[in-house]
């Protein structure tokens, strides 16, 4: 739980000031930021799905090996947590972008 707090604090310290600073500039910059965040979110989501699949394969091929089952469960759990963080970050970015948008 401590890492999630750290990620949110870093996000709040860097993304919010950046978004408000970009409000005074052209919409092209905010569109570029949107494109970058969408690309990063896509890659992170793709990695999360990949880790869930790998964890599922590890789990199904464990053959009673408790260590491998535990590793597979942790992999799936952390992939789900990572995907949730990405979705929350995407939502926060969207909200901040709509708050500071100069065009209506």
SSE layout and pairing:
Elements: H1 2-22, H2 27-60, H3 66-100
How would you sum up this structure in a few lines?
The chain is mostly helical and 104 residues long. It has helices at 2-22, 27-60, 66-100.
Average the pLDDT over all residues and give the rounded result: 80
Secondary-structure element sequence? Answer: HHH
Count of DSSP strands: 0
Let me know the largest β-sheet: none
As for the number of domains, it is 1
Beta-strand percentage range = under 5%
Ranges where pLDDT stays below 50 over 5 or more residues in a row are none
Alpha-carbon distance between the two ends: 38 Å
What is the CA-based Rg, rounded?
18 Å
Helix content: over 70%
Main structural class: mainly alpha
- Summed up, the helix count is 3
**Shape category:** elongated
How would you describe this protein?
The chain has 104 residues and is mainly α. The protein has one domain (30-104). It is 87% helix and 0% strand. The protein contains three helices and no strands. It has helices at 2-22, 27-60, 66-100. α1 (2-22) runs parallel beside α3 and α2 (27-60) packs antiparallel against α3 (66-100). The mean pLDDT is 80.
List the defining traits of the structure above.
about 100 residues; mainly alpha; 3 helices
